[in-house]
């Protein structure tokens, strides 16, 4: 029961007979508008075209489709708002060259009519450029499905556009329409929105808009040398000395100069800044400020402190200039020794890119664990392990001796015959894993055999139990257990046998023929479970990318930039406590965004390198 002020207002408002009604969802109004424009008859059955996580299932960007679509591509969109109606289209050549176009419609039309106008506008652009094979992308479900004749066109306003569109489509040798999420059609959407909101007379012609990329801010906070010989405090000094103002000063400038002059003190020809604790700091010019920052920061007793501490130490030394704090921060950022000894950047430099495996069980890693002491009751002292890289499925078998014949039989019986032919097999350099029998088997089934670095984990004796727990646990990435995806049913746990569950009680009453029939039915439905696992994995990758990208601090480089290379911890000589974390600066000579790592020989003399020495720089993008 409410008490206090809440109860008081409840009693006051109760006499007005106020009824609370929750607001309806906005999507309901959108559905109502759609049904009003497209009335249905008794025999009309609308199609359900919504797919869950449509944006997730659409892998790749507009730029990524250049490799998949060697033909000409057309992206179009229409925009209708309170300012007007605009359409935009972008025609992309097979070489990746873009030809944008936009138009403002001087007549009223709906959103669907604007989509058709944009499509016809883009098709006419393609015909003028003599394009014969074209793939058109649109974010309008209505236009795409009506053009593909999956939906019936019944609106009297849309019907003329539909007929005109089909007439233009006959002039192409090949014309294909594909649906594209709105997030992937931003270029055409921006052109349509811009053209719809611009208000201009009919006789005015607007030139094409060029978008420039600016990687540096327009303002500059560093202390630069002035064109004359006067320091920054010359106006304050002249006002205190003779009471004169600069010739171009306005009334506001004069008032500001008087207020600033009250905080300074002139002793002969030297100007001092009066602090709040009545200390006097000598004002210095640009050259003296640069010398003071260099001496205090990296001089004889310079501790290479941070920018804020550097400004405070200079003030304690007895000097001052107007932009001291900002200049000290920029000076410390340019110090090469502070950079090479700086902290390691933990933030990821690029966004998260998830990968999928279209080839199930395509890559396996195989290794030998042993020797195990004491041996098992059957005398087995070695364990041969094979792990699938994508699903993390594990296959193990124990042996007395792991010979080349044992490895070849294990690969044939437990990998190829059970899971199909893999694409790649990765092992170490051991002789029992690299021999003529294994190489012959890989050559027979066209399997690529690769070697990796040697790594032998210690055996704790609980491998079978760990494998059982892993296979019967639901994995977050696939939303199911690996056992159910491989065999079509969940495994029977020891607890189910100890205390019989309903499943155990029902299966014990089945005849052998009925049990085999149900198993065949379960195996026939396993494809649906695999597709659900793939969909769940894509959604999981989308969530991981969204969480990962929150921590990303993008770092981009251009040719000619000076960069530092991180010293990796894996090296022959261990680094000391005071060793630098970054190597001396290198100059970027080439950027290759198609390759993740580019080896660049960049000659640059450093304070501790020999003249003419050339370093190899591993530049990662």
From TrEMBL:
Residues 607-621 have a biased composition (Polar residues). It comes from the Eukaryota. GO terms for molecular function: nucleic acid binding; RNA-DNA hybrid ribonuclease activity. Residues 68-210 form the RNase H type-1 domain. CDD domains: RNase_HI_like. Residues 602-621 are annotated as: Disordered. Residues 354-520 form the Integrase catalytic domain. Pfam families: Integrase_H2C2 (PF17921), rve (PF00665), RVT_3 (PF13456). One of its GO terms (biological process) is DNA integration. PANTHER family: RIBONUCLEASE H (PTHR48475), RNASE H TYPE-1 DOMAIN-CONTAINING PROTEIN (PTHR48475:SF1). This is Uncharacterized protein. It comes from Coffea arabica.
């Amino acid at each position: 029961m409410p008490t206090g002020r809440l109860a008081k207002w409840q009693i006051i408002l109760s006499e007005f007979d106020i009824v609370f009604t929750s607001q309806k969802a906005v999507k309901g109004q959108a559905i109502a508008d759609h049904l009003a424009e497209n009335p249905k008859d008794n025999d009309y059955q609308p199609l359900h075209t919504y797919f869950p996580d449509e944006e997730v299932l659409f892998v790749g960007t507009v730029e990524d489709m250049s490799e998949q679509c060697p033909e000409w591509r057309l992206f179009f969109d229409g925009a209708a708002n309170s300012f007007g109606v605009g359409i935009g289209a972008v025609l992309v050549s097979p070489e990746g060259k873009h030809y944008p176009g936009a138009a403002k419609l001087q007549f009223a039309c709906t959103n669907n009519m604007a989509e058709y106008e944009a499509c016809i506008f883009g098709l006419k652009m393609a015909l003028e450029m003599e394009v014969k094979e074209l793939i058109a992308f649109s974010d309008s479900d209505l236009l795409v499905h009506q053009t593909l004749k999956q939906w019936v066109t019944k609106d009297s306003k849309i019907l003329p556009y539909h007929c005109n569109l089909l007439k233009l489509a006959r002039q192409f040798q090949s014309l294909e329409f594909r649906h594209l999420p709105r997030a992937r059609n931003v270029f055409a959407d921006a052109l349509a929105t811009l053209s719809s909101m611009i208000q201009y007379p009919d006789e005015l012609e607007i030139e094409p808009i060029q978008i420039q990329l600016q990687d540096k801010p327009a303002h500059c906070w560093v202390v630069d040398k002035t064109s004359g010989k006067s320091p920054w405090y010359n106006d304050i000094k002249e006002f205190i000395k003779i009471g004169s103002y600069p010739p171009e000063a306005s009334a506001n400038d004069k008032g500001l100069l008087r207020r600033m002059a009250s905080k300074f003190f002139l002793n002969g020809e030297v100007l001092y800044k009066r602090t709040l604790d009545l200390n006097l700091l000598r004002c210095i010019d640009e050259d003296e400020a640069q010398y003071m920052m260099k001496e205090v920061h990296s001089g004889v007793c310079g501790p290479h402190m941070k920018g804020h501490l550097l400004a405070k130490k200079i003030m304690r030394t007895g000097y001052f200039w107007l932009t001291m704090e900002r200049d000290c921060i920029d000076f410390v950022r340019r110090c090469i020794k502070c950079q090479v000894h700086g902290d390691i950047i933990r933030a990821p430099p690029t966004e998260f890119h998830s990968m999928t495996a279209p080839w199930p069980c395509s890559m396996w890693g195989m290794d030998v664990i042993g020797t195990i002491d004491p041996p098992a009751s059957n005398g087995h002292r070695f364990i041969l392990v094979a792990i699938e890289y994508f699903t993390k499925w594990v296959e193990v078998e124990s042996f007395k001796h792991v010979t080349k014949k044992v490895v070849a039989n294990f690969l044939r019986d437990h990998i190829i015959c059970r899971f199909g032919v893999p694409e790649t097999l990765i092992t170490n350099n051991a002789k029992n894993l690299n021999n003529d029998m294994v190489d012959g088997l890989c050559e027979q089934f066209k399997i690529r055999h690769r070697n990796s670095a040697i790594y032998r984990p210690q055996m704790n004796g609980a491998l079978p139990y760990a494998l059982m727990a892993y296979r019967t646990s639901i994995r977050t990435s696939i939303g199911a257990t690996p056992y159910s995806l491989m065999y079509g049913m969940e495994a029977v746990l020891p607890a189910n046998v100890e205390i019989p569950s309903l499943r155990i009680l029902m299966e014990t009453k089945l005849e052998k023929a009925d049990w085999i029939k149900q198993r065949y039915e379960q195996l026939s439905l396993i494809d649906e479970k695999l597709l659900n696992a793939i969909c769940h994995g894509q959604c999981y990758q989308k969530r991981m990318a969204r969480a990962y990208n929150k921590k990303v601090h993008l770092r981009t480089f251009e040719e000619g930039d000076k960069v530092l290379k991180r010293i990796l911890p894996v090296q022959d000589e261990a680094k000391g406590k005071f060793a630098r974390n970054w190597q001396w600066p290198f100059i970027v000579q080439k950027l290759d965004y198609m390759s993740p790592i580019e080896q660049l020989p960049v000659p640059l003399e450093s304070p501790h390198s020999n003249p003419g020495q050339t370093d190899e720089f591993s530049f990662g993008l």
